[in-house]
Amino acid sequence: MPKHQSSSSATGYNKHQSAKNSQLNAQSQGEYQDHRQQRAPYNRDSNRDNNKKKKKNDKEPAEYRLPKGLSKCKNEIRSLNRLLSSSQLMPSTKRLELERRLKALTLRQTQLSSSKVDKTNASRYHGVKFIERKKILRRLAQIDKKPEEQQVEEVKQEKKSLLVDLNYTSYYPDQVKYISLFPAEPEKT
Q1: Is the separation of the CB atoms in 106 and 80 below 8 Å?
Q2: What is the C-alpha separation between 35 and 85, in angstroms, rounded?
Q3: What's residue 154's pLDDT?
């Protein structure tokens, strides 16, 4: 055998070429049906929607989402007020939609501003509350160490008031300025 025949048969080129020729002959005779004719044509645009990864925030359109930050919220409220107060003619449905958006934004603004106050108060009074809680717990521990025989009505009353004070320091709301249980006495000079 010559070299060129063995190398071409080793790659399978002759077999592939002969199979292709037989398909073409059968197709010209009408015996062979192309498998591509049985399927629907490939539509690139319809397949694009199925393969697209959905983001977590794609639940609703961007125009319905409210801003997360206070400054963005204030800016949008300002722009909507200007748009509604302008003498532009717009359909009544559009005006209604903008007014609803404005109401939602003002509500969101109050929520954001109150949460900002909560955070500042919580960080501001955290240390004071912590120290007062420690003082109360120390006093409660001293009362518990005393023998039960010595616990009279006054001690029980003091323990009850200390527990009330402990709840006061633990559950005081962050929206309001904290009023200390043990205020520092001003130094007299």
Answers
A1: no
A2: 64
A3: 82
Longest dimension (CA), the chain: 121
> Phi and psi of 56, rounded to 5°?
-65, -35
Dihedral sign (CA 175, 179, 181, 186): positive
- Cα 128 to Cα 114: distance, rounded to the nearest angstrom: 22
Q: How confident is residue 16, by pLDDT bands cut at 50, 70 and 90? A: low
Which residues, 6 or more positions from 114, have their beta carbon under 8 angstroms from its beta carbon? 175
pLDDT band for position 19 (50/70/90)?
A: low
Q: Please check whether residue 180 is in contact with residue 132, taking contact to mean a CB–CB distance below 8 angstroms.
A: yes
Of 32, 16, 14, which Cα lies nearest the Cα of 24? 32
Quote the radius of gyration of the chain (alpha carbons, Å).
40
Report DSSP letters for 80-136, one per residue.
HHHHHHS-----HHHHHHHHHHHHHHHHHHHHHHHHHHHHHHHHHHHHHHHHHHHHH
Give the whole-angstrom CA distance, residue 80 versus residue 76. Answer: 6
- From 113, 119, 117, select the one nearest 77 (Cα to Cα): 113
Q: Which position has the token pair 């359109």? A: 61
For the chain, the residue count is 189
Please state the three-class secondary structure of 54-83 as a single string.
CCCCCCCCHHHCCCCCHHHHHHHHHHHHHH
